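User: Some background: our group keeps a shared notebook of sequences we're curious about, and every so often someone picks one and asks for a predicted structure to add to the entry. Today it's my turn. The entry only has the sequence so far, pasted here. Could you supply the structure so I can complete it?
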Amino acid sequence: MIKTKKLKFYIRTFGCQMNVYDSRLVSESLKLSGFEEVNTPEEADVILSNTCSVRQKAEERGVKFLRDYKKQGKITVMLGCVAQQHRRDQVLPGVDLAFGTRSYILLPQYIMGYLNGNAPENRILGEDFGLLELTDTPLKRRATWIQEYVNIMQGCDNFCSYCIVPFTRGREISRPSEHILKELINLQKQGVVEVTLLGQNVNSYFDGKRQFYQLLDLLDKETEFLRIRFTTSHPRDLTYKVLRVIADSTRITDWIHLPLQAGSTRILKKMRRGYTKEEYIEIANMIREVLPEATITTDIMVGFPGETDEDFEDTLDVVRKVKFDHAFTFIYSPRPGTRAAKLKDDTSNEVKGKRLRILIEEVNRIAHIQRTRMISKFYDFLVEGESRKDKSLSAGRNRGFIKGVILGNYPPGTYLIGKVIDVKGLAPIVQPVKIIDKFEIYNELTLSV
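Assistant: Of course. Here's the predicted structure to add to the notebook entry:
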């Protein structure tokens, strides 16, 4: 039994941006309750793992992480989608406490209760409340960070056949727009210059007063951020009104992450995605029409049960027609509890691996062509840190979320205009032209060099 009043904790995140954001809320909540956050798990009394269950690998890593420290006598706590997913069977070896995605507000009191011998019988607690209260915990900017995530809604009502999210995150709940604005202003005062609005399906946001396009318009007008991004959008819910607000805005960026998942209408129907191949291409064309310089990125899986060579060719056809700037590609992984997990899968791993390699090559080939069109043009870049391969260079992203290598070493947060002089792989090589004020919105029409 640990006797100290100020318990030390360490939290590690395995998964998506939503998990990262949730971990920060949990951290702030624990610190406000008297816990102390430490930099390494070895220093901690309590080890927390916030783990995504969308893909099996993240789940396995999160469970193994806790199991290893349980052997060292640490108190182990499982958070997130994995905890929520296993709420019925409670089979989480190596875990002392588990908290579902909507019960984080109870963490401090139940950790102390566990230490005092009052372990709850049902370790998945508060499944239907606590989200809005916890998201109002004031976040402190991470040291040297100039970018932050902000959650605007949680859950999903789509129930795609392969997706575990509706079962682990619940049905859609949107935060009040006034609360979101307050959080953004708080981060702005701390020096944050770029925020990304998060949600499983951000463009279905509705708080009873404002729809998503109205929220974007509010944040664009009432804040002073350099950039406001959002992810992820469901193709079926991306509207012309949203694109029009982006086109007319000062701060909302024209990066649209629009998961395709598959290009075959037959497979999309089995996935319960709610659109056809042709409708997806039409939506992408609408984006290009309203936002000619938009960056479109996507998620694509291969090997969904029943996928044929013809279905896979449809996916490649969409890739060629939409011309994605980037794609997250992966092999389908069945998730227990989903409809797709019951479907017969008669495609070999060898075929799935071959399709994935072909897909990656085609996405990269087209993305490289897209990048070469940037050569000799000027773009704004926000420096995020040193280049991973060469510390004498910097890495940063432009307004369209494209990551480039910037000649010279600049501190994180430097905002500059640069000319793309070359492309290496998929990375534009950027020659800085001039440093500009962080809160000066770049307009290419006024650039004189």
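Suggested note for the entry: Residues 267 and 307 are 7 Å apart (CA to CA). The mean pLDDT is 87.
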